[in-house]
Amino acid sequence: MGTDRPITVGRIDYANVWPIFHYAEQQLPADRFRIEKRVPAALNLALRQGEIDITSMSSFAYAEHADNYLLLPDLSVSAKGRVNSILLFMKKPLEQVLQGRIAMTATSATSVILLKILMKLYYQAEPSYVTMEPALDDMLAEADAALLIGDTAIHAAWANQENDKGLTVIDLGELWRNWTGYGMTFALVAVRKEIAVRDPESVSDVLHALTASKERSLRDLTPLVEKACTQLGGEPAYWHRYFNELHYNFGSDEQAGLTLYFDYAHQLGLLPNEVEMRFFEDHTALKVKNE
Length: 291
Fold this sequence. Notes:
- By secondary structure, this protein is an alpha/beta fold.
- It has two domains: 7-80 and 185-290, Periplasmic binding protein-like II (D-Maltodextrin-Binding Protein, domain 2), CATH 3.40.190; 86-180, D-Maltodextrin-Binding Protein, domain 2.
- The protein is 47% helix and 22% strand.
- It contains 14 helices and eleven strands.
- The protein has helices at residues 18-21, 40-48, 59-64, 94-97, 109-122, 136-142, 150-162, 172-180, 193-198, 200-219, 222-232, 236-245, 252-267, 284-290; strands at residues 7-12, 33-38, 54-58, 69-79, 86-90, 101-105, 128-132, 145-149, 168-171, 184-192, 246-247.
- The strands form two sheets. It has a six-stranded mixed sheet. Strands 7-6-8-5-9 form a five-stranded mixed sheet, sandwiched between helices.
- α5 packs across α8.
- The chain is globular and about 55 Å long.
- The protein starts with 6 loop residues before the first strand and ends with a helix.
- 43% of the residues are buried.
- Belongs to the MqnA/MqnD family. MqnA subfamily.
- Keywords: Lyase, Menaquinone biosynthesis.
- GO terms for molecular function: hydro-lyase activity.
- This is Chorismate dehydratase.
- InterPro entries: Menaquinone_biosynth, MqnA.
């Protein structure tokens, strides 16, 4: 296998990543692979420190250390417009929020940087920011608006509707699309370069498992919808729409949108380095063909 321990694969345990991982574990033998579920920020750190070998990770965290990683091709969590789980909740009118204070989730950098880009370049505004744990009521007690992501954002949006809290909600994926014309990629799957060199066959096995899971999940969303209803609540119609409005490939359109995001982040001094995306090359298919 080339390593003295199982290959460790990190999984963001939000519903938006389920299609990529739902069927993957059954294709990755436990004696060779270990799956770890954590929030994005924890996975980003674990990959950087070498505790995890391959992981789904926030796009911005990838960009910060892109020279150390390779991307697994054609895997992402993207949205062409509305994303439904990257949401800004405002208790005051937008014009006041733009001059006020925004509480930001501590769980992922990509959405935080996207918010800052939109505030600065789209709205021409510079509100102040505070980072907090993702609890909407606590955040709004300290700020005029709050940014939440993932399943926490979904539940907060439901509660806002059901309890008529009167909060205005902005979907950052939709706002980005309306402004730039591009979709937004929120998460990627990356491998540490040294693992790709040391054990390319295991990396290929993970790539194949994740790709097969993505394709099987999208052919029939019913198992994921049922899982979401059971674990997270909500109606089947909501979850069918949710998964259908997300995109899990990483083709030229997604790459162009993410490149623009990286360029804006660099322009604003939020990202110190420029980013050249490099991909893991899967040679197993070529090897089989030659044999």
